[in-house]
Amino acid sequence: MDPAPAGTVAGEGITHEELRLAARNHALPLEALRHPITPAGLHYLLIHFDIPDVDPGSFRLEIGGAVARPMSLSLDDLRSRERVTEPITFECAGNGRALLDPRPISQPWLTEAVGTAQWAGTHLGPLLDEAEPSRDAIEVQLTALDRGVEGGVPQAYERSLPIAEAGAALLADEMNGGPLPPQHGFPLRLVVPGWYGMTNVKWLTRITVLEEPFTGYQNAVGYRMYAPDGTPGEPITRMLPRSLMVPPGVPEFMTRERQMEPGPVTLTGRAWSGRGPIERVEVTTDGGDTFADATLDPPLGPHAWRGWRLAWDAPPGEHELASRATDAAGNAQPLDPAWNLKGYSNNAVERIRVVVAGA
User: Were 233 and a residue from 89, 225, 315, 323 both cysteine, which residue would form a disulfide, CB within 3.0 to 4.6 Å?
Assistant: First the structure.
């Protein structure tokens, strides 16, 4: 099967197809990074197909496949289980895609496809234990209620997860203290800490325990790294480290170039990684010639972004600001992006142009 979307464009504007995607989905306004917990309406959103119309009264979550005890659970059944509430950061695997050249054709994210919410529900692990997976079980297949066509393949949105990772996943029915909004998966979604957003299946309706690797489109074709010639490579899994800055000053309407007065200012932002806690954030105000260590805020939680801050005495002139995150496993953001066919996992540092008055 052809890796879709396979096309790229160099030096051209956004296509009508990309514009339709961008109108349906939305990014986090960078100024909203000031909120430790992202308000639901500002959290980034990507919907592959259509938002399904789900009757919560008749809804069931089915757990089956290679298990000794298949289960069929209502929302009340799930809510009677032990409850967990945790701040967890999501990022789209395609974040940064639109900054690549040539640009892979798909949802044209810049850097803002991220958000951190308080997700509440019950852990999947105990339910899987009760279902008693076979000794040969290796994955869980996650099936959603939304359906469509991608790469010419009619499908429900489906992903799989190694069974060893599934125990930590959350079956979430609340976001920021209220029911899931329809666009965020009402009435039930999966939340997998540390993994890119495509793993957090919305409108989850069925979990199938597998003894063989899942070969559905979203795993086998969709979310993989591809070489320039279209050769499929490694699957997309955990988030790479990234830091974003609250843009200082005020924006010019069309270009979003930042304009500000000279003098002392505190630069702030948030950093995260799915491969280890954030241990360092460095900030440059000269385009990358010199970096200074920012002060890190206390962690919100083991799976949430971490705030940072740095004092800057802004001199008149033009400046390029950037921040670079490093996690506990030693993974650091690159200064320049590595191109790939579908524009995944581009975690190169964000660059913000600032004009300080008085030049």
Answer: 225
Q: How confident is the model at residue 23 (pLDDT cuts 50, 70, 90)?
A: very high
Domain coordinates of the chain in residue numbers? 8-235, 242-356
* pTM beyond cutoff 0.85: yes
Give the CATH superfamily of 8-235. Oxidoreductase, molybdopterin-binding domain (3.90.420.10)
* CATH of the domain spanning 242-356: 2.60.40.650
The distance from CA 254 to its chain's CA centroid, rounded to whole angstroms, is 26
Q: How confident is the model at residue 229 (pLDDT cuts 50, 70, 90)?
A: confident
Beta carbons within 8 Å of 294's beta carbon, 6+ residues apart: 267, 269, 281, 282, 283, 308, 309, 310, 323
**The domains spanning 8-235 and 242-356 adopt the same CATH topology:** no
What six digits make up the tokens of 158?
């489906």
Q: Where are the alpha helices (DSSP H) in the chain?
A: 16-24, 75-79, 124-131, 163-166, 217
Q: How many other C-beta atoms can be found within 10 angstroms of the C-beta atom of residue 350?
A: 22
Q: Which two tokens stand for residue 284?
A: 């440059």
**Measured between alpha carbons, how far is 153 from 171 in angstroms, rounded to an integer?**
28
Residues in contact with 136: Cβ distance below 8 Å, sequence separation at least 6, in sequence order = 66, 211
Whole-Å CA distances, 305 to 115, 223, 239: 9, 23, 12
- Cα–Cα distance between 64 and 208 in angstroms, integer? 5
Confidence of residue 5 (pLDDT cuts 50, 70, 90): very low
Q: Whose CA is closest to 191, among 206, 204, 210, 181?
A: 204
